[in-house]
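Bumping with the actual sequence this time:
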Amino acid sequence: MIDIETLRNIEKEEGIPKEKIIEIIINSMKEAYKKQFGEENAVVKINLAKGEIKLYAEKTIVEHVTNPVLEISLREAGKFETEAKLGDKILIEIPLKSLNSSAVMAARQVFMQGVAEKRKEHLAAIFSEKLGQIVKGRVARFKGRGSTGISLDVGTQTIEGTLPFEEQIPNERLLRGKEYEFYVKEVKLSERNPVIILSRTDPNFLRKLFEREVPEIAQKIIEIKGIVRSPGERAKVIVLSKDLHVDPVGACIGPKGVRINSISKVVNYEKIDIIRYNPNDEILIANALSPAEVKKVEIIPNTKEANVYVDKKEAPVAMGKEGINVSLASSLTGYNIHLIEVEEGENNEERK
């Protein structure tokens, strides 16, 4: 009915622990017994090492038998246990070959359902450990509503994760069969396989890339204080060094830009500004508007707004394409930034 070698293969290929396989077998054999005999007094003993599966009926020794499925006479019990006495329970082996086709079918159904359920739980547990981490996967198919199916390898198995449309980098063309990196954003159970939601736009994806590429961040010498992104266009990362001898901006950029370029390549060559942290909000706002040069920052009292003065030639840089630079700087610092152009040599200020 159930081949031991098949069970070993399930343990190896599906990744289901041996103890869980034994649990599935026991449940399936009990269901087979119940299907044929209508009672729940089955006992299953399994020895995977020896390749043995035995089914027993647990019966109570009574003087007068009224239900032969649950009870056995003292005389009959003596054939199996010489020291049997009234009131004892005894196990009577049920040959597996004696089970009828309905019982066998019930056992197989419970077994397959059990394997599917444990496989789902096993995969969910694996990816729950990968939650908030980076994984590699290949583009498998393009689904409805703009989402993309991503093949993820788990040992000898492959499971499909989902990259929703809103988690995709705008204007990035993902190629079928090509391998990319993804951030595991969410893992939840469903009726079939666990649902694994992936992302390439989440700011934490960028954080994990920095932790991987910049040893000083992984070692907690440098702390990332904040990240904002306009995926595929620009990102800003505030960094703080806990060691006066370590330059946080230089460490993140790396020799000849090797570190920052490596990170940017993963996110479709997104521009990344490394911002030096400063506890002074005025200085931090000026830094956040990088690469623009700021003349003056004026925080409006009792508000989270700031007027930022820049030369007219610097205004387009401070603003950025479609206002991305100033928008990201505002999000990063928590201040609503108003850019004010200053003509060189003029005292008048014009709000833009």
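The tokens above came from a reply further down the thread. The chain has eleven helices and 16 strands.
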